[in-house]
Write the structure tokens for this entry.
Amino acid sequence: MVEAPSFAVVGHPNRGKSSVVATLSQNDGIAIAMEPGTTRESHAYPLTVDGNTLYTLIDTPGFQRPRKLLAWLEAHSASASDRPETVQAFYNQHRDDPQFHDECELLKPILEQNAGIIYVVDGSVPYSAANEAEMTILQWTGRPSLALINAIGSDDYSDRWENALGQYFRIVRRFNAVTAPFEQHLGLLRGFGQLEARWEQPLTAATDHLEHQRQQRQTDSADLITRALSDMLQLQVTGSIGPTESRSAAKQTLQQRWIDSQRKRERQLRQGVESIYQHHRIQRQEAELHWAGDDDLFGDHSRALWGVSRTHLATAGFGAGAISGVGVDALTLGHSLGAGALLGGIVGAAGSYYYANRLGKWSMGPLRQGHRSVRFGPAADLQFGYIVLGRALNHWYQISHRNHAGRDPVNLATTGEHWISQLGKDDQRQLQSLIQRLCKGTTDGRRHDQWIQTINHTMHAFSQWQQNEATGTSPAQSV
Ligand SMILES: Nc1nc2c(ncn2[C@@H]2O[C@H](COP(=O)(O)OP(=O)(O)OP(=O)(O)O)[C@@H](O)[C@H]2O)c(=O)[nH]1
Ligand SMILES: [Mg+2]
């Protein structure tokens, strides 16, 4: 097997070197900070898929004294042909010199491990003489090298950087470590492959692996979402009401247990999806499923938090034509249509307790020695399924599009319009049937693979809708 290539990520302090390493090695544990001098030692981060290392990125400290180093090199070099040896001689002599600690650390992987060079600059600050010294030193090593223009701030000097970098590096790319989409990661890896002939094959293999991994991660997430949806919609909690106990207090306690379990299961799903994408340190800003205060499931506030809209719910419930007796008007006008019309009844409900009471099914056992068993669940309201799913898709989408250099909390609040309109009619029907079966508790999980596929399609629909939102394209409405 061909040896996986290594790349030393080098540059001025505080220019996003560690951020580039974190994103390309998919490692969110790497220290990234606003203070210069965060990285003091070189450290290798391999990217491993299925036990195979595809490539290794080496994080390094920034140059501290590039001009002094260059002056030493110039003083010790007789001609252009001895430049790589002169850099080696500098390294040999100064390895234990604290004055050049950072320079020796960053040269170590290049000189000792034959690593290629990725020179990172910040395109939002202007070019300086210190950069010229850095680039000259790197050029003197004679190693294959590429430059990346990262942008930390909002100013843009990229054009000038491109001109300057183009004189020192054969390949110059713009790459924002925090926001670059997956396709750009692949493009960059292909660029690395052009640096040296023997790297082309392993890096082509690496991009293939990563594309496959991305597909697999989506399928694995669909599996987790399907399982969570199944658990949450079918959840039942049981208790018993004693002879002296108030029935309503006992019911409230039971209902609270049901809600707490739902939240716990949802958190478990979030962590599961984050772990699939190797995000282990995410802070989430997500309103928990809640029924407190004056909000009901259809309050504007709840809908915004849950990333669903009234139209979405209407489309979801009725596009499939699965529930009769209630029209879209009933939802949008908020009429109460009485007990027989599930959705209308919910919309008409003002109080949260009233709503929560109808979210799950109640059943009472016979009276035995003064005690009566009572059960809450499974979910009675199909819309609950759409809300759980909408929240899960939103979270999955953000996690799957998040680079490992990202350090901002994930914000899961959205204005949420009707992603479901991107879903084909057949899939809408499948989804409706899945949710219905789960709510009725008439499933034994035998169709799990088929459901995963349906959920996978909802993921595609959600992504499509997000992309349309981002580009301002108005999706075709199906209501
Ligand atoms: N917005 C934005 N911020 C970035 C990006 N890359 C880096 N930063 C921020 O810039 C700061 C420095 O990033 P690091 O990756 O730690 O930089 P470094 O070059 O490794 O720094 P040292 O190890 O101190 O030399 C951090 O606050 C990062 O969050 C980027 O692409 N976009
Ligand atoms: Mg660093």
About this structure: Residues 17-18, 38-39, 59 surround magnesium ion (ligand 2) (CB under 6 Å). The longest strand covers residues 360-368.
